[in-house]
Design a protein that fits this description.
Layout: E1 5-10, H1 14-24, E2 29-35, H2 39-47, E3 51-53, H3 56-60, E4 65-70, H4 77-86, E5 90-93, H5 101-114, E6 118-120, H6 128-139, E7 145-153, H7 172-187, E8 193-201, E9 211-218, E10 223-229, E11 239-243, E12 246-250, E13 258-263, E14 293-296, H8 307-316, H9 326-345, E15 349-350
Parallel strand pairs: 1-2, 1-4, 2-3, 4-5, 5-6, 7-10
Antiparallel strand pairs: 7-11, 8-9, 8-15, 9-10, 11-12, 12-13, 13-14
Helix pairs in contact: 4-5, 5-9, 7-9
Bound molecules: nicotinamide-adenine-dinucleotide.
């Protein structure tokens, strides 16, 4: 029988309920209380069998709670995290950690001072589509590569609720860039980001960005192109990686749909297409003959989704460090700050992150 570590949730909305579900499915973790500024959400928490707290202080005064999960709008993360750490709790905070690097440093300082852990829910590093791309690149199947496209486009158009309000940290850069940046940093933990360019637009939600493109250059020669938009009625691949021997594409958030193709031998000049019909738009862009291409099965990976919470349990036991470290959190926020700076100045930002 494992010891049970008790948790409290601040912000009982979409992600608050997500954490309740995942934590309670983890042997050794149990959510016992929740606080939300919305009374209806407190009542919802009570119906889910939790103690509904009327204030943050009430939740923090519950001695048996060892860890506080923060699932509130982005502008409130810093204050709640620091209060919880000062009350002697460990903190698992939703992404982004805070609104900027300075706020994040304040939280990390409070964690160190109180000797408690602070970690962020960068959960998409366990997504199966990402793990599939990671395995492909590690195995070298498509040869040398310099370009990774990672993106997602939604159809709903507008951002809504607090996500449409700049004062609450709304917009797609705060919402999605932390995930996409974290995944790229996970591919190259020992490399540095040297340059970054970001363009953000407000296509249908005037107050915040609802579209962004980030170009992130690493010191190993890789350029990651990260794209998110909320309004596109046709889709782009979730992942597209160009190698000098092959190409990998995943259409969505699963490793089951897409394509992995490799060249069988070098393609020399135009001889292979000379004299053939249906050359396509030009000789340069003419398709190869089918026998020149080897189509391989997609890369299947196990679902490690629950390992995040297992690591939280082990961290509470003092047997592991949180998987998402202070370094991860600070680098992520430094790059997010650089993305905003780049978009506002419309300039490349030189970095050593
Ligand atoms: P939501 O609107 O569904 O829920 C937020 C809840 O917080 C609401 O119930 C609101 O009443 C409450 N709240 C607002 N201010 C508060 C405060 N000061 N104290 C206590 N409660 C407060 O939002 P959501 O989609 O659950 O997003 C919450 C956080 O989770 C955001 O930081 C967001 O970026 C993050 N998020 C992460 C993922 C992920 O995959 N990791 C997915 C979605 C959202």
């Amino acid at each position: 029988m494992r010891k049970i570590h008790k948790m409290g949730i601040v912000g009982f909305g979409y992600m608050g309920r997500f954490h309740l579900d995942k934590a309670n499915k983890t042997d050794g973790l149990e959510v016992v209380a929740a606080f939300d500024t919305d009374k209806a959400r407190i009542e919802e928490a009570e119906r889910a069998g939790l103690k509904g707290c009327q204030t943050l202080e009430e939740l923090l005064s519950i001695k048996e709670i060892e860890i506080v999960v923060i699932a509130t709008p982005n502008d409130s993360h810093r204050d709640i995290a620091i209060c919880a750490l000062n009350a002697g709790k460990n903190v698992l905070c939703e992404k982004p950690a805070a609104m900027n690097l300075n706020e994040t440093i304040e939280i990390v300082t409070a964690a160190k001072k109180n000797k408690r852990f602070f970690t962020v829910h960068h959960n998409r590093r366990w997504d199966r589509d990402f793990l599939s791309v990671k395995r492909l690149l590690e195995e070298g199947t498509i040869g040398e590569y310099t370009t990774i496209n990672s993106g997602t486009l939604g159809q709903r158009g507008v951002c809504f609720g607090w996500r449409a309000e700049p004062e609450h940290g709304g917009g797609m850069l705060y919402d999605w860039a932390p995930h996409l940046i974290d995944q790229i940093l996970q591919l190259y933990p020992d490399n540095k980001v040297t340059r970054l360019f970001c363009r953000k637009e407000s296509i249908l939600t005037p107050a915040v960005d609802d579209f962004f493109e980030i170009k992130m250059f690493l010191d190993n020669g890789v350029c990651a192109n990260l794209t998110v938009g909320t309004f596109a009625l046709q889709s782009v691949p979730r992942w597209f990686v160009y190698g000098d021997k092959g190409t990998y594409m995943l259409t969505g958030f699963s490793p089951d749909e897409g394509g992995l193709a490799r060249i069988r031998k070098d393609v020399k000049g135009f001889e292979s297409v000379h004299g053939k019909k249906n050359l396509g738009p030009s000789r340069t862009m003419a398709p190869l003959a089918p026998e020149q291409i080897e189509n391989l099965p997609l890369i299947d990976v196990a679902d490690y989704n629950m390992s995040y919470y297992e690591n939280i349990f082990m961290s509470l036991e003092g047997k592991e460090e949180p998987n998402v470290s202070h370094r991860d959190v600070l680098r992520n926020m430094q790059l997010l700050d650089a993305a905003f700076e780049s978009a506002n100045k419309y300039q490349f930002i030189e970095l050593d992150v």
